Structure formats: structure tokens, C-alpha cells
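Example complex used in Figure S2.
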Amino acid sequence: MNTYFKLIVLFLTMTLVSCEDVIDVDVQEGPTRLVIEASLDWEKGTTGNNQIIKLSESTPYFDTTTNTHVTNASVKVTNDDNGQEFIFTHQGNGEYVVTDFEPIINQSYTLEVIHEGETYSANETLTSVVDIDDIYQSTEDGFDDEELEVNIIFTDPEAEENYYLFKFQRQGDLLPILEDGDDEFSNGKEIPWWFEKEEDEDTDEIEAFRPGDIVDISFFGISEAYSNYIGILIEQSEGTGLFSTTPVPLRGNCINTTTPDNYAFGYFRLTQVVKTSYTFQ
Amino acid sequence: MKNLVLVFMLFTAVLSAQENYTVSGIVKEAKNGETAFGASVFLKGTSIGSISNEYGFFSITAPKGTYTLIVSYIGFENIRQEITLDQNQKVNFEMEEKSTQLEEVVILAEESERVSLKKPEMSVSKLNIKTVKQMPVVFGEVDVIKSLQMLPGVTKNGEGSSGFHVRGGAVDQNLVLLDEAIIYNTSHMLGFFSVFNADAIKDIKLYKGGIPARFGGRTSSVLDVRQKDGNSKHFALTGGIGLISSRLAVEGPVFKDKGSFLVAGRSSYVNVFLAAADDDDRVGFYDLNLKTNYKLNDKNKLYLSGYFGRDSFKFGKSFASSYGNASGNLRWNHIFNDRLFSNLSLIYSKYDYDLEITLNEFDWISSINNYNVKYDLKYYASDKFKLDFGVSGIYYDFDPGQVRPTSETSPINPLSLDRKKAFESGLYVNAEHKVTDKLTVQYGLRYSAFSRLGGQAMTDYANNQPVVYNSLLGIYERGTAIGETDYGKSETIKNFGNLEPRASLAYQLNESSSVKAGYSRSAQYIHLLSNTTSVTPLDVWTTSGKFIKPQLSDQYAIGYFRNFNDKKYSLEVEGYYKTTDNRIDYIDGSDLIGTNNIETEILNGEARAYGLELLFRKNEGRFTGWVSYTLSKAEQRTLGGNAGGPGINNGDWYNSAFDRTHDFSITGAYELNDKWTFSSNMVFQTGRPVTYPNGQYQYEGQSIASFAARNSDRLPAYHRLDISATYKPNRKPNNRWKGEWVFGIYNAYGRKNAASISFTQNQDLGINEATRTSIFGMMPAITYNFKF
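Predicted assembly (1069 residues):
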């Protein structure tokens, strides 16, 4: 629902806006923090045994260094019920992997990361996701009547509150696009979710979908807590305009049990995911 | 306090009972019969006098004797009349305009805009519509709200935002009244235009502090806008044709000279161009002002006024929306006797919006309705003592939102948020008391009460905590619902009552200067929910109740006022300090849309603001204008309270979004000759507090910004210059048609003022960028205005 309001506001701003330009701005420099990207995503139809956790450090906002990998941490995930431990080993580039992870729907797990004498910990439950009923392309849905969009149809389970995350990436594009949703206004309904790229007429940087384009789609079932987190993250990464919510320091679920103020960025999530791709005709 | 009032009443009643007689009446403009608000009526050689009220009424009581009575209203010829006070009497005055040649250009500021040294009234800005019309504006459309921003203590949240801020207050803390009806949204097209059509408006008064006891319900300011009554002498036509919009007003006498009417309309016509260009998008607004009055007899007069305004836009086949205010007001002026004036008002007002998302096949409607009864009386006890008193009651019906699917295949379920009903009442008494020739005091008391009415269920929370601090993660989360309490239709969910003392004094130091001081307390029971940087028309109002407390504000002000050179120049210096309790703020990640339980998204905080305001005016001559400067601070703090934890921003004070350290402006008008007048505005303001990133990290293949403490950065300074020229072609003196051309340039040097700065990752290059959005570049405009 928020999305609709944002769209309207976006439209209003567009009507008013006469000028946008990139400028130099001095920003503050916050403390360097550990970044934990512990996304244990169980792709439907696979064993889910292979999992990666990425560790890095935050940098000043306009810094262009990308090599901030954390290579000297120890990483472990524990099944909270049976105590089974999965030790992740460093593979280079700050990536820690296991090959024997056992995903169980609705099972809670605990992450423990030890880095430079400080222990970070997080707890999360693996959330399931429904199947995609149908995928098709159209032009009449979406914002722009003349551009192609992909539609994903799925049926929301009526019994519980559900939270979803979509990740779209056109092959060849540098960055993925994340979108989040829930069933607050659509509980138990068949939900059509469209994704469209809009032409940026000023810069020609963004191009709408063309026949032959392939878009990779991931459809995640996520927990309510993660939905709150990723919702803010997505909103804030879309920019902070006149009608956006005041940005906030975003805290994930990775707490520092040694020095609480030195919490980590990122999140320990456990999801089930449907991955597919669509080729535009 | 109550006892004191009684004692004074008795005291003055006894004094005035002997040997004193009263002269009372109505002051009007001769040309069009409009009642004159703020004309000064006094007895020459004494300090006895009175200022005419909103309905032109005045009353003077003086000892038996013969006097010269003088009526002055700047821009008009003084009236002098010998008067023998040996009995109570009625005299009405009609003021002739000063010069026929300069009939439309009033080079003199209105008397009421000038510094009044004796009145304890302070922190008040009054603008006559003629002054407003002289100022250069964007799109050539005269704009009341923008003109107010040229005065000290009044700012705006930047271009493209609705509303205005007074002395560090929020948009929803302004009580905006159009002929006494509450207006909820003051802007068309997101702040491009104000909802007030200058052709229908008589005058504007903004109380920034020292709010008189007769007003209540908002903590920051009262903007009192009065519509014209309509020409009671002859038919008249006023209008203007601009680039974006046009307007037309018709007025004239009705009911065999017992009354008059005014109908004014305004409409944008961007849509015509869009349609012509075969574009599916639409954007536009219109409004309609109506007023009529009927004089039953010398003691009774009826007024009926109405306003209807609407904005609408449509984006192709994706969605459409419309929103607006509507209000109607029936008033009955009754003069009991030459000392007691009364007014009874029945007021209805409404704000609503409708949003149709064609794309996803549903629509959303939301509205506020309120019904208001007010009875105000003014008693002119003696030349030393005047008393205002009255009662008011407002019934509110809030419909925060209804969602309806518009087709069978819609993915959206129907939803109705709980309607909220409430009743607000007020009772007040206020005295203006001239203690000595030099000292005048004003003191009053308002009692306000608010009941959140039942007829619905309210959620109960574990430990009575709608918001809970998660100390492990260091974030605020929604509380756990454990059930519901049902409130019957005859029950109230919560009741509040507040005593609001108001007091001020003026001490005249000498002929040309005075000091004033004031204190006021005010309570506010309804709140606008907005967690965005700028208020939007789609924000929803909510009431105080079980979880949301009323805002309570205390303001202290002190000022020095001085006239120079025979009132040619004036200087006003004021300092203020204001605190507000129970100012709500929003938890991180709050979701205000479509939720019944607003209490799970907010925390009760506090706010404080202080500042120094300077206003220097030149009131007479070919060149008139003013310089205004404000140095101020506005902050907020939101502690965890019942929810636990340190609170928002770690419980530290943070800048309010409307904090402006410096706010400087110059407004000037120069009358070159009968044909040409030039005017100009210049504004400089410290940038708005905002939150910028203080770091980045990699997540999901993107660079994610981490943000610094709330509002700890600032946008670049805002500054702008506007100029305009008015040309009046040669006219024959007897020609009734009078036209003028107004040429203007808004933002003359094309400053790209940042409305916002957005931080995003470039989709192609992957680097982080700061993107500035600026709304108006240089905007030329041309308008043709006419009168007939």
C-alpha cells in the first residue's frame, strides 16, 4: 500500500520538479562497522546444503574502495532445537561457506560471528514461500502503457500474515532491484506483481525492457522482522526526497554481545526462495 | 484569576454607571460599503478610543461632555465630527478614500499593520490584502501564505510543500480559519498556490503567540482570514488572467440595499493544454468563494459564507486523485445595546481526499467533517475595560480511510478503518484593561475539554505498551495486541480538560515607544500524522485519546516597539520561548498508511523553540516595505517513556525539520509614477535540517547508506530574489473599466534551491551520488488584472 502512496507522491514531485542535478555534498563520517550478509536462502527444489555468509566492513559514504573483506573471523550457525552446528570456512574475498547446511522450514537458527575479539550473534527462523503460479509479459500493466513489464502471479496463503521479497536483475545490468511486499491489504488473494523498468529520458542510463532481455527473478518468503528491516533498507536506498520518510540509522538483527554499541550492519536471514528467469518476447 | 476578573468587572461597572455615555456604530468604506476592520475611533485630546472589530463595530464610553470625534483608517480621509455626549448614541461612518488618482495603490501601510503602541496585543502580523497584492509572486498569482513568509517567525518547509511554520511549530499546529471555518489544507498543487483567492479576501491576521482566549485548539498560531462582504453600493467585477490560472469575482448589493453578495471563482487551466496535447495526464485546481449578508435591522445582521476548493490530478490510466476543503458558515451579529456586541456562528467544514488506483483496481477515500457552534460576545464596559467572552463546541467525525476494490478481479480486499469521533468544547473570558494611561493589560482564561467518543473497540496491549523497546536489537517495535475493549456509543474512550491562561501587557515608555510582554498556554487535541519530510495532502489527522495525549504549549514573549519620524518608520523586536509537551514523533520504520492502530507507530515527545524577531518597516512615501530577520532554534526530544529504552535519536535533542537559524527577508515597493510600480522580495534562510548518510556498506549486491543522527545535517542555504512591475495604462477618469498588467520574475537569478538532496547509487556506474532536486528555476509570469 505504501508503494501506491509513494507512486502518487513521485508523480506529484515529477509534475513540480523542474531540475535534478548531481552535486558535491560534505557528509559526516560514522564509525566503521562489521557488515554481516548472512542470507541463508534455500532455493526450492534443491537441498540447500551450500550456503555463503559474506563479511566486510563499512566505509565512508563516497569512498570507492571495494576491498573491505573481513578474512579473519570465525562463523558458525546452530540449529536451536537439536544443537547441530554448521561451521563456515573462509574461502577468500570475505566469503564463508558450508556445504552441509540442513534447512528446515519454521526452524530457528542462531548465528555467531567472532571478529577481533568481539562476538556478534543473531537469531532467525526459516520462512517458507509459495510457488509462482504464472509469469507473463505485458505492456498495459505497470506505470507506462507503452513499456514492457513482467508479471508474476502467486496466491497468498490466507491462514497467516505473509511477507515477500523480490529481487529482479536484468542480465547485463550492474545492480539488482529489490522490492518488498506483504498481504496486509490482499490476504488470501491471487496477487499479480509487476516489474517494469522506466526509460530515463535525461540520461539514457536506464532502459526499458526490450524483446530478448532476460530478467532473473528471485521470490523470497521472509519473516516479519526481516520485512521491517528490508522495507526500510529499500525505501532508503531509493533516495531521500521531499516526500520520503526521514531516514533512520538502520539496525539489523546482528547484535554485538561484547560491546553492544558496536553493532553490525546487515542481517541474518533464513528464507525459502523461488528462482526463475524470464525472457521477453 | 477568575476572582480578579470578577472584581474588575464590578469595579468598572460601578465606575461606568455614573455620568458616562456611550457612542457606538459601524465604520464602513464609502466606495463599496465593506465594513472596516481596525479603523481607529477616538476622542480628540483624550486617550479614549476604540478600534473597530471584524464587523466594523466600535463602542466608546466617556464622561458627559462635548468632544471632537476622529475616525482614522489609513488610506482614507479622516472624519472629524463634533459630538455631545449627553446620552447614549449611535453613529455610523463611511470613509472616503484619500486620493482618487491613487485609488488602487495604497502607498501607506494600513493603520492596523502599523505598530500599535498601546494595545497589549503582540506577536501579531496583520496584512491588508492590498499589501499582499503588491508583492511579487510566482506565476503571477497573489498568494497570502507566501506573503506571510516574508514576516519574521514564519517559514515554509521549502518549495513544493504545503502549509507553513510559525516560530518553530509544525504545519498542523496552525489554526487556519476562513470566515471562522477551519481549513485543513492551505495549499493548492502542493504549495504552488494558496487556497485563498485574494479577490475574495478582506484581511489576514496571524497570531504567532499571545493567542487571544477566544481561539483554541492549536498550539502554534492562528491565521484568521476574513472574506469580503461584497460591495453594497453597486455591482462590481474583478478578475485576472494569468498563465496558469484565472479568476473572476462578482459582487453587488441585494435585497433592496439591505445586503450584498460576493461570488469569486478561480481555476487553473493546465488541463486544457494537456488535453490539447492529447496527453492522458491531468493536473489542476479550482475554488469558489461565496458570501452574502442581510441586514435585518440596525441591531441584527446575518452573514452566510462558503468556500469550496478542489485539487485533482490523474496520471494516465494508472491512478487519479482529488482532494479539497469545503466549508459553510452562517453568522448572526446581534447588537444587544451600545456596549454589548455578539456573534453566533454555525460552521461546517470538511476536508477529504479520494484516491483511485486504476492500476490495481481499488480506491481509497478519507475525510474529516466537523460541525462547530460558537457564540462570542464583546462587552465595552468602559473606556478602560473591555471584556470578551464566549463558548464554542466542535464535533469531529474522522474517516481515516476506506478501501474499496473497484473490480471483481482486484487483488485488494475491502477495508474500513475505524471512524473516530470526538467533541471539543471551549469556554473563555478575556479582559482588556487600561490600568493607567501608560499601562494596558490583557488577561484571560480559556477552559478547553475534549472527549474521544465511543462506538468502537480499542486494542489492548500487553503491559499497556503499544510500542515496545527491543533492548536486544536496540529498536522500537509494535506492541503485542492481547484483546479489545469495546466502547459503547454513549461511552467516551477518554476525556481531557485543560485550563489555558493567556495574559499580556503593554507599557508605553513615551510617545513613540513601548514594551510588551505576554504569556499563553494552549492545548491541541487533534494531530496530523506525517512521517515524511514534507506534509502531503494525503496525510491523515488523528485525535487525542487512549494513547495519544493532547499537545500542551507554553509561550513567553517580550517585545520592544517603536515609531520613528512621525510614524514613517517603525521597529518591532520580539523574543520568545516556547515549550510543547506531547509532541508525537514516529518510530523508525513507522507505517502510517492503512493502520487502525496509530499508537503502535509513535512515541510521545516534547519540543522547544526560542528566537529573536526583528521587523523594520517604512510605512509611507513612494518607497514602502520592510526588513525582517529571525534568529531562532527549534528542537525536539522523544524519550522512550512507557515503551522503555532511550527514545528516538538515543533520547537526545534533535533539530526539528522546521528549524531555521537565520531567516532574513526584504520586501519593497516603489511607486515611480501613476503608471508604474515596482516591487521586490529578497529571502535568505539557513537550510532545512536533514539526515545525510555517514557511511556505506555492501549488501545484496548494492551499496547501502547508513545514516547519521536525525536531522544532524542541513540543506544548503535557501535564497531567492523576486521582482515585479505593475503597469497601469492611461485611463479616462470616468471609465469604469480599469486594467493593469503585472510582469514578474520569481527567483530572478535562477538559484537552484535544494528542495531535497537524495543519496543513491548510480545504476550504471555503481558509484554513490548526491542528487539535488530544485523545484523552481527562474519563473517569469504575466497577469492581466481588471476591475469594472
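Chain B touches chain A through 90 residues (CB under 8 Å). The longest helix of chain B spans residues 2-16.
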